[in-house]
Amino acid sequence: MHRLNDLDNRIAKEIGNPQSLQWNVRESYASIARRIGVDEETVRKSIKRAEKAGSIVRWRVTVAPNLIGCVDVYVDLEVGGSKEKEDAISRLKQLDGVISILDFEGRGLFMLFDSEPGEPLARKLNLISGICGDEEFTTWNSAVPPCDMKLSETDWRIIWAIRDEPRKNLSRIAWEAGVTVRTVNRRLNLLTEHRAIFLLGRPDFGRAPGVSANFLVRVTEAEKNASVSDKVGSKFRTIVFGMPVAPSLLFYNIAFENLTQANQAADWIRGLEGVKEARLGIMNGLTLVTDWIDGEIRKRAFARKDTR
Predict the structure, then answer these.
(1) Phi and psi of 306, rounded to 5°?
(2) Which of 13-22, 96-105, 192-201, 207-216 is modeled with the greatest confidence?
(3) Where does the chain have alpha helices with state H?
(4) Domains of the chain, earliest start first
(5) What value does the mean pLDDT of the chain take?
(6) pTM for the structure as a whole
(7) For residue 209, which of 5, 7, 36, 237 sits 20 to 30 Å off, Cα-Cα?
(8) How far apart are CA 86 and CA 274, in angstroms?
(9) Is the pLDDT of residue 218 over 50?
(10) Which of 5, 82, 31 is nearest to 14 (CA)?
(11) Which long-range contacts does 221-230 make (Cβ < 8 Å, 24+ apart)?
């Protein structure tokens, strides 16, 4: 089995994972290698090992939510037993705006969805709460900054062409979008520069090495965030993603070699001064939901064609 190591973890942070964002969807391995101080072949082999092991089995390109009139929201919640969870996931997948559903071992679920702000968002949260039977869920906006670029129909057609295959050949993208290779290259550079698009990865947790654990950490007061964050960052070298998501709330994704290590980490975090609660979720499966976002991209990519 492929073992976790510090270098692989550093590379994973650069190429994107279920909780972090890779803005340059076609970034070269050479560029990643330069940033972390290794050679290109080392990066290539690490990524191939991860793909073979199941750490990442599919990449999807998605768009900054404000480009489709939305905000994006994370929801951390629980459902009943396994049968209730299976039914809840099936129903959640049918909701407009749902991007991904992360299934934890036990009762936990973790969702990412897009919604119009205000009343539509409140209705969506109430609907999710009703489906899962959890009235004490935690929610926060994600860290995706708004894109300040106005996309053309050509931009949307390029996004449509690469949504399932970010590294598709430029000539193929150009043919599908009905433009030149030069135009594709120029527009992709602009989309990247303005952070209009980013990658989401889907791992196969049944095949992936080790254990991937999420921690939702509540601190007693906002002033404790920095202190707790510094201690967690110094303790664990395999943090894949970590950030404050609310004034008194921290979120981490940390890789471990086994479940015992993850449980020990949870106990250690709970014992830190200023920590009120630390909720541990062991990742069991991730569903990327594509129909809704594909529909939003398509209707912008082929607006004139669809109205003829």
Answers:
(1) -75, -15
(2) 96-105
(3) 6-15, 29-36, 40-53, 82-92, 119-132, 153-162, 170-177, 181-193, 225-235, 259-270, 291-301, 303-306
(4) 65-140+288-292 (3.30.70.920), 211-285 (3.30.70.920)
(5) 86
(6) 0.82
(7) 36
(8) 36
(9) yes
(10) 31
(11) 221/248, 221/274, 222/247, 222/248, 224/248, 224/273, 224/274, 224/275, 225/250, 227/273, 227/274, 228/269, 228/272, 228/274, 228/275
User: pLDDT tens digit string along 47-101?
Assistant: 777 766 656 656 789 999 999 999 999 999 999 876 789 999 999 999 999 999 9
> Would the pLDDT of 44 be above 90?
no
| 182 band by pLDDT with thresholds 50, 70 and 90 | very high
State the pLDDT at residue 6: 67
d(CA 16, CA 240): 9
Residue type, 40: E
Which has the minimum average pLDDT: 1-15, 72-86, 226-240, 293-307? 1-15
**Using an 8 Å Cβ cutoff, are 46 and 86 in contact?**
no
From residue 183, give the alpha-carbon distance in Å to each of 6, 164, 188, 203, 210. 39, 20, 8, 33, 43
Is residue 24 a contact partner of residue 194, using CB atoms and an 8 Å limit? no
Going from the C-alpha of 303 to that of each of 62, 173, 286, the distances in angstroms are 19, 19, 32
Q: Which of 210, 162, 216, 219 lies closest to 185 in space, CA to CA?
A: 162
At 302, list the tokens: 């082929």
Q: Do residues 77 and 137 touch, judged by C-beta distance below 8 A?
A: yes
Exposure of 34 in the CB half-sphere (CA atoms within 13 A): 4
- The torsion angles phi and psi of 164, rounded to 5 degrees, stand at -100, -10
Q: Average pLDDT in the 156-178 region? A: 95
**Confidence grade of residue 2 (pLDDT, cut at 50, 70, 90):** very low
